Amino acid sequence: MKLSQRMILVLTTVGLLSGCFLAGVGLLTEKPIQMNKQKEIREAIFEVVPQSNSTQKLLQEEELSVYAGMDKNNKIRGLAVKSEGVGFQDKITLMYGTDPSLTRIFSLTILEQSETPGLGAKITSEKEFLRFWQNKDCTQKLSLQKPPVSSPEKLSSSEVNTITGATISSRSVLNIVNQSLKEVKQLREKGKLLSGEPNAN
Amino acid sequence: MPTKPIGQEFLKGVWSENPIFRQLLGMCPTLAVTNAVVNGFAMGMATTFVLLFSSLVVSSIKNLIPKQVRIASYIVVIATFVTMADRFLQAFFPAISDNLGPYVPLIVVNCLILGRQEAFSSRNTVGRSLVDALGMSSGFVLGLLVLSSIREILGSGTFLGTQVMGDWFKPWTIMVLPPGAFITLGILLGLVILIEQKSKSRR
Amino acid sequence: MELLAIFITAIFIKNFVLFYFLGICPFLGVSKKLDAAFSMGLAVTFVMTITAVVSWMINHWVLLPYNLEYLQIVSFILVIASLVQLVEMFIRKISPPLYQALGIYLPLITTNCAIMGLALLAALKNYNFIETVIFGVGSGIGFTLAIILMAGIREHLDLADVPGPLKGAGIALIVAGIMALAFSGFSGMIK
Hints:
The complex is a heterotrimer.
Chain A (H helix, E strand, L loop, with lengths): L2 H46 L5 E7 L3 E7 L5 E11 L4 E8 L5 E9 L23 E2 L5 E3 L13 E3 L5 H23 L12
Parallel strand pairs in A: 7-8
Antiparallel strand pairs in A: 1-2, 2-3, 3-4, 4-5, 5-6
Chain B lengths: L5 H9 L12 H6 L4 H25 L8 H23 L1 H7 L10 H11 L4 H31 L1 E2 L2 E2 L14 H25 L1
Helix pairs in contact in B: 1-7, 3-4, 3-6, 3-7, 4-5, 4-6
Chain C lengths: L2 H11 L10 H6 L4 H30 L8 H23 L1 H7 L3 H4 L3 H12 L4 H29 L11 H16 L7
Helix pairs in contact in C: 1-8, 3-4, 3-7, 3-8, 4-5, 4-7, 8-9
């Protein structure tokens, strides 16, 4: 056999074998990987919408998705809004739960961030940041309390706390929430969000 | 080619030809994922897996591959195992896979792996290649563990996530950030050379 | 994210070398002389831009439509390797002076993890076509900036009295660490 033929033969064989092999690996791992991705979102939804244990996607825009969180009787307990925006270092992706009529934020959770460890990254900390986000009135724009306060009771219902040394990260989170709330409300007015009334099955 | 005793073949990867401290190979993962011990360890294991199986395959098919297309074939073999490692982590250890991000697929361009195929596996028997791969990976894992332990203990005050430093300790956040990686590795390289010099002059 | 933000982020804030630790080999290896560093930077920027375009096309026209994501690593690495070969032949034909300047650096680029990293990161971040190109150009410029600064410092370092064991790679890494520290001051520039 000529050298060039042998070269082509070897490369094709190696390529084909690896292709077949990878197809097998791809098939085997596809399901678990999909499940992992969904599981992460579902767990976040159940965390921010109290008493929910099933969910349904209501809306998906480029940087915004809205899910309904339902309890075991299929009653809508609240909406979970997933949104993203620019933080101090890079993108921040977060999710918060509201009641079905979009008047109150139950709680907030951060899905993805790469803020500075020890400073901005505290936005993921329950003690330092997230507990100051519980039960907020979101009929109006939320505002930032600065200088920071030591306990959630010292904030009014439309104020959220700042992390010392990480004002930009705190403000980024606030802006993402305010912006996405505005969008969700607009979308609801346009009738693109089919929810809001409890008992919708 | 003179053949070394098998034990020496293994040990050279750990110390005298340590991929990180001596050959400066595989620098990207070394610096990037060593901000916590668990990440460094996972990266070490993934690299070990890829190196072992690539060496196994390359050394068993070395006689079938024409010289001109060897690099391309090695790359395909390596990329296949890297994909396997990546998918496996994504499927069963999603948290670790998230932490390591693009650095698992990047094992494919880790010069350590292609380097060992070219320099060793393509010229030696299957057995010797496996021992060599095992030695090199141990050296690599060792380097990652040392670097990530230093960075995690000083940078977060923890080891494998458990608090090891007392309350008096204020974490040096800079250690888990990129500058800490460069500076720690720079100082470690100096230390390794210092130890070598000391041990030589004693002899 | 807007295009300008992607561009600035790629150059300063998430510099390929100083933040992602990609392309460390050439960064340490080819940073002893300023002009060599500059040529290397140019070659990398050039290949990065093309890689950004081609990897995007493969990802969006072949891999994603047919659910072949598991072939991503294999196809990217093969494409990059052949691309570098093609670019090398092309430049040799079209512009011999440019080949003189970049020639010896091009083969080194194949195993440069910065190129592969670019293709993977752009896919991971779900950038659209324009964003991917901007990301590619910006990352290349960021790499060039880092390697030129490094070379400038190292030329002066030759005259300095560095403690014995740290000579060479050790001090280079420490310098890189200080540079990374300086560059981290850029974060927060984009709001």
